[in-house]
Amino acid sequence: MTTFNLRQVRLRSGEQYRDAVEVELTPLELGGQRYVPVPEEVPAELTITRAGSGTVYELGFHVRLHGPCYRCLGDAVLDLPLALREYQAADPAAPDDLRTPYVEDDSLDLSAWARDGVALALPDKILCRPDCAGLCGECGEPLDDGHVHEDAEADPRWAELAKLRERL
Fold first, then answer.
1. How would you classify the pairing of strands 75-89 and 103-104?
2. What is the chain's pLDDT, residue by residue, as a tens digit (168 residues)?
3. Surface-to-core class of residue 47, CB atoms within 10 Å of its CB (0-12 exposed, 13-18 middle, 19+ buried)
4. Helix residue spans in 7-134 (DSSP H)
5. Helix (H) or strand (E) holding 29
6. Whose CA is closest to 26, among 154, 150, 115, 116?
7. What ranges do the domains of the chain cover?
8. pTM
9. Burial letters for 108-133: b for 16+ Cβ neighbours within 10 Å, e otherwise?
10. Pick from 3, 21, 36, 99: CA 20 to 30 A from residue 107's CA?
11. H-type helices in 12-136, by residue range?
């Protein structure tokens, strides 16, 4: 778990602090599948800007996730560039939406922030390639290989439509 000690940064209003940090990422579980970041520690740029009413935290990094394709279960690789931003109000009585959950006791939890940012940036379906055809519903072979069943029987529910096609 990567954290950043905020006590080492003393900023006045309008000042900014930048630092290159290594952020440890944990594997994600999505739809019962495991997606692993490679490498597990990614270089990131942390920027802290002090404003009059609070502090703005920014974290930028690039992550590559490896895991199964949603359609064919083959290997899929997903590249995500991320630019995350959080705000922490200076007033302790500020509403929760003006306070970041990643700052606690002068410590910024970079790993949790990065994990949540990656999870929010994921597409609905992680695919090995955009035109992945998936698996055959009968035998489970990949359809991308030109797989066809020569002796496949037609679904009886379509029989009436087949008769209509023959008449036309």
1. unpaired
2. 899 999 888 888 899 999 999 999 999 998 889 999 999 999 999 999 999 899 999 999 999 999 999 999 999 999 999 999 999 998 878 888 898 999 998 899 999 999 999 999 999 899 999 998 888 887 888 887 777 766 666 778 888 888 888 887
3. middle
4. 110-121
5. strand 28-30
6. 115
7. 3-129, 133-168
8. 0.80
9. bbbbebbbebbeeeeeeebbbeeebe
10. 36
11. 110-121
Rounded Cα–Cα distance for residues 38 and 118 (Å): 13
What single letter denotes the amino acid at residue 136? C
49 residue type, one letter: T
Q: 């009886």: which residue's tokens?
A: 156
